[in-house]
Amino acid sequence: GCEVRLRSEVVPHSPSPSTCTMAPPRRAAPLTAVLVAAMLAVQIGPAAGELAFTASFENATLEPFVQSSNAKYAGQSVTAADGGLRLDDANKHYGVAAPLAAPFKTEDGSVSIQYEVTLTDGLSCGGAYIKLLEASAGLDVATFDDKTPYAIMFGPDKCGATNKVHFIVRQQNPVTQEWSEHHLTGGPRAFTDKKAHLYAAVVDGATQGLEIVIDGESKFKGTLWDALDPPLTPPEEIDDPKDSKPADWVDEEKIDDPAASKPDDWDEDAPRKITDPAATKPA
């Protein structure tokens, strides 16, 4: 499923199992709504790869998106107008999602996600990010909420001290079977003005490179191995949580030898250095 969850004062997301690629940039006219997501595209594979999902909202209809019936989004008013997905009221959680024709995987790990956001009243506290939902037997885009499992989350978020463009990968440890979220560190700040901005995240499967592009300008470049916290791959060595010091452990690196003693001919008054009587200058 592909979920676009928006919150005007809270967050938007948009889901797709595990792959995406970029579509041509598109601009939507400013709206009087609180938040707009226009031209959503998810592509997989290399630069000329398969376009897995796209939505331009050009026919004044939410299709293929549906509004979640979850109580978290009660009272939400979402419409499609002027080529955008519009949130009509401020200070609400919004959630809309669209199913994919079929779950998909990236053969080489390449993914591109692109969408446009217009915050017509600016942004003081809220988010406008997209989630690519995890393909699972129990997934129902008509009832999803913020607890619905996802594979990737991407997009701007600002509230209080937080001001960032999220890129989060959710992954299961094959050994422990535990799920964890891996967050982009050092990423760009979100735009908070009233203009339309085109956000794109591009993962290169061949190099494991990650790039965040806003309005066609690269704002972050790194790799999935060094840009996420915690790292996708754990360190080769970690501290043993069950390890403990012996009862007689001494923390000092050096200690006096209790059995040491001075030689019988030790002279406390002798200088620390003396001239070598046999030393001569070289010829």
Overall description:
- This protein is an all-beta fold and 283 residues long.
- The chain has no helices and 19 strands.
- The strands form three sheets. Strands 1, 5, 9, 11, 12, 13, 14, 15 and 19 form a nine-stranded antiparallel beta sheet that branches. Strands 3, 4, 6, 7, 10, 16, 17 and 18 form an eight-stranded antiparallel beta sheet that branches.
- The radius of gyration is 29 Å and the shape is elongated.
Topology:
Layout: E1 2-4, E2 7-8, E3 35-44, E4 51-55, E5 66-67, E6 78-81, E7 84-87, E8 92-93, E9 96-98, E10 111-118, E11 126-127, E12 130-133, E13 150-159, E14 162-172, E15 179-184, E16 196-204, E17 209-214, E18 217-223, E19 228-229
Antiparallel strand pairs: 1-9, 1-12, 2-8, 3-4, 3-7, 3-10, 5-9, 6-7, 10-16, 11-13, 12-13, 13-14, 14-15, 15-19, 16-17, 17-18
- Estimated helix fraction: under 10%
Radius of gyration: 29 Å
What would the principal axes of the Cα set say about the shape?
Answer: elongated
H/E element order? EEEEEEEEEEEEEEEEEEE
Q: Distance N terminus to C terminus? A: 90 Å
Q: What can be said about the biggest beta sheet? A: 9 strands, antiparallel
In DSSP terms (H or I, runs of 4 or more residues), the helix count works out at 0
- Estimate the strand proportion: 35-45%
Which residues sit in consecutive blocks of at least 5 with pLDDT less than 50? 1-36
Mean pLDDT over the full residue set: 79
The total beta strand count reads 19
Helix-and-strand structural type? mainly beta
Defining traits:
disordered N terminus, single chain, 283 residues, mainly beta, 0% helix, elongated, eight-stranded antiparallel beta sheet, nine-stranded antiparallel beta sheet
